[in-house]
Design brief:
Blueprint lengths: L2 E8 H9 L9 E8 L8 H4 L4 E6 L4 H10 L5 E6 L3 E2 L1 H13 L5 E8 L10 E2 L15 E4 L23 H11 L4 E11 L12 H15 L3 H14 L5 H21 L7
Parallel strand pairs: 1-2, 1-4, 2-3, 6-9
Antiparallel strand pairs: 4-8, 5-9, 6-8, 7-9
Helix pairs in contact: 6-7, 6-8, 7-8
């Protein structure tokens, strides 16, 4: 089987990061790079000279559109979602291929990455169903899918994620859509590489739109119980020192009220 990394970046500084990554050269592995806000900058020679790297400029805004553009250009049997700030491990990429070769009944795999920040993962490989294991959440760069059976049915919602109307929750909603559409999902304790920095999910937050994105996700995931969960989420954000309780709660609740219209506009990215 072959593996494509759907790698997203933006701005000239982003493609420079990709150029310094020393992406592993492996038979059957390619790097499909979607480049946003490129400013018509040239492609670095170190990337242009590689036959396993393809770069496609993306003229749309928002990380969701960037990821969709990368996925649309993938041709491998397996697609691994990727970022420009992860150091990828050659043995791990081989392991990802091996997982899909051995498990014909799995269409979406979640993995892990190493980081200075502790993130809870399941202790062993496990089939994923709703509700997910306690304290476990899925980041986009931990997801790999079969291109034929899963990638064609899944897209990132353009109204979610950095650079969009609601600048968060694009990865949670993507994974939730997979679960709701009946795509077979499984976690394997394989680290794809190392992420040196805190993810956006651990950073201090403050924008009204960010809180609304949380509300959108809570509504899509939990339905009628979303307001109660908004209270719990706001309390957790306050306890973690990441957001004032009442400020976050007000805008999370506003996101919940906007979720119905958002879903109507984006049904093709969600689920029936």
């Amino acid at each position: 089987m072959t593996l494509d990394l759907a790698l997203v970046t933006w701005q000239p500084e982003g493609i420079a990061r990709v150029a310094t990554q020393q992406l592993p050269r492996l038979d059957g592995v390619r790097y499909i790079v979607s480049w946003q806000c490129h400013g018509n900058a040239p492609i670095p020679d170190s990337l242009a000279s590689r036959d396993d790297v393809e770069i496609y400029r993306c003229e749309l805004t928002g990380v969701a559109n960037n990821r969709n553009n990368a996925v649309d250009h993938c041709r491998g049997d397996i697609i691994l979602m990727a970022d420009d700030d992860i150091t990828y491990d050659a043995d791990a990429l081989r392991a990802v291929i091996g997982i899909f070769e051995r498990h014909n009944d799995v269409d979406l795999v979640t993995l892990r990455y190493d980081s200075s920040r502790h993130k809870p993962y399941p202790a062993a490989e496990t089939a994923l169903t709703l509700p997910l294991p306690v304290d476990y959440w899925v980041s986009t760069v931990e997801i790999a899918v079969r291109r034929d059976s899963a990638a064609g049915r899944l897209r990132f919602c353009p109204e979610l994620g950095p650079g969009a109307l609601y600048p968060a929750a694009e990865d949670e909603v993507f994974f939730l859509a997979a679960m709701r559409r009946g795509i077979r999902c499984h976690y394997f304790p394989v680290s794809i590489g190392r992420h040196p920095d805190l993810s956006s999910g651990a950073a201090p937050i403050g924008s009204k739109a960010y809180y609304k994105a949380i509300g959108i996700f809570l509504s899509l995931c939990y339905g009628a119980s979303a307001p109660l969960r908004a209270v719990i989420r706001s309390w957790r954000l306050r306890r973690q020192g990441r957001a004032p309780f009442f400020r976050s709660l007000i805008y999370i609740l506003r996101g919940i009220t906007e979720a119905s219209d958002m879903k109507q506009r984006n049904r093709q990215y969600l689920w029936p």
